[in-house]
Design a protein that fits this description.
Length: 258
C-alpha cells in the first residue's frame, strides 16, 4: 500500500530568546567568517569545501556533488521495512519529531487505513529517510487524527548503560520507606501535560532583559538549595503529613508457637 505524505516540523524555536554577538566598544553586531589558518585571509563561500582529516593536517576534500550522489534512499520515499511494538521502543533513541500528513485529497483514505491499522495493533512503522542530505532511521506512530515521524539516534551514538551503572549495588533499606514512598507517588499521580512545563531559565532571561530595558535592578537570584537531609525516614514522614496522609503502622512480627 502506498500513500502520499508531507512532513511538517513538530517543534519550533520561535519562542526562545536568541542573542546576537556585539562589539562591546560600539555596540554593533559582529559576524563570523571563515579564514584561512595560514594566511588569515577570509575565504569566500564559493571557495569553501568540506574536508575529512585522513592524517594529521592531511585532508580529503569532499564536494557537495559527492554527498548528493550518495543514494542511501530516495529523498521522496518512506519505505516501511518492519513494524515494532510501540511498548518496545527504547525512548533513549527518540530524537526529533515531525508531523506526517496526507499529501493531497487522494491520499486521505490510504493514510487513514495505515494509521488506524497501526493503532489497532499497537505498533509503529520503522523506515529510513534522507533528511538534510543524510540518511536517518525513523519510526512512524499514530498520533490522534494523524501520525508522528520521529528521527532515531544511531546506536553508536549511545553510551552503554553498563558503563554507567556498573558500580551501582543493590541497597538495603527499611521496607516501611518503600511503602511511604509508594503512598506519596500515589498522591501525586496525574496525567502527562506538557502545557504545564516551565522553562525557568528562559523565564529568568526574559525577566532580566525586561529589567535592563526599564533601567531597573535585575531580579534576585533563586536561593541555593539546602544541604541534603540525612534522615530519609523523617523526610518521607514529613512529606506524608504535608499531604494529609497517615504514616503506615508497622506490622508486628509473628510469634513462633512453642
Amino acid at each position: 500500500m502506498t500513500c502520499g505524505v508531507k512532513i511538517v516540523g513538530a517543534t519550533s524555536e520561535a519562542s526562545k530568546i536568541h542573542f546576537k554577538i556585539l562589539n562591546r566598544k560600539d555596540g554593533l553586531p559582529v559576524k563570523s567568517v571563515y579564514a584561512d589558518e595560514k594566511t588569515g585571509k577570509t575565504v569566500d563561500a564559493e571557495d569553501q569545501v568540506k574536508g575529512f582529516e585522513v592524517e594529521k593536517d592531511e585532508f580529503l576534500q569532499i564536494e557537495p556533488a559527492d554527498i548528493k550522489a550518495l543514494k542511501l534512499t530516495s529523498d521522496h520515499t518512506l519505505e516501511v521495512g518492519e513494524f515494532v511494538a510501540i511498548s518496545e521502543i527504547d525512548t533513549r533513541y527518540l530524537e526529533k519529531p515531525y508531523y506526517l500528513i496526507p499529501a493531497d485529497g487522494a491520499a486521505v483514505e490510504a493514510y487513514g487505513v495505515i494509521r488506524d491499522a497501526m493503532k489497532n495493533k499497537g505498533v509503529a512503522a520503522r523506515s529510513c529517510i534522507v533528511l538534510y542530505q543524510r540518511g536517518r532511521e525513523v519510526v512512524i506512530q499514530p498520533y490522534g487524527k494523524g501520525m508522528v515521524m520521529t528521527e532515531l539516534r544511531n546506536h553508536n551514538e549511545m553510551v552503554a548503560e553498563d558503563s554507567v551503572f556498573e558500580g551501582l549495588t543493590k541497597s538495603k533499606y527499611d521496607p516501611e520507606l518503600l511503602e511511604i514512598a509508594g503512598m506519596l507517588i500515589d498522591k501525586k499521580v496525574t496525567t502527562f501535560d506538557p502545557s504545564k512545563f516551565e522553562d525557568t531559565y528562559e523565564d529568568a532571561l526574559i525577566a532580566m532583559i525586561d529589567a535592563k530595558r526599564k533601567g531597573e535592578a535585575p531580579p534576585k537570584a533563586a536561593p541555593k538549595p539546602k544541604e541534603n537531609v540525612i534522615n530519609l525516614a523523617e523526610v518521607l514522614k514529613k512529606s506524608l503529613k504535608q499531604e494529609g496522609l497517615a504514616t503506615p503502622k508497622k506490622s508486628e512480627p509473628k510469634r513462633k508457637s512453642a
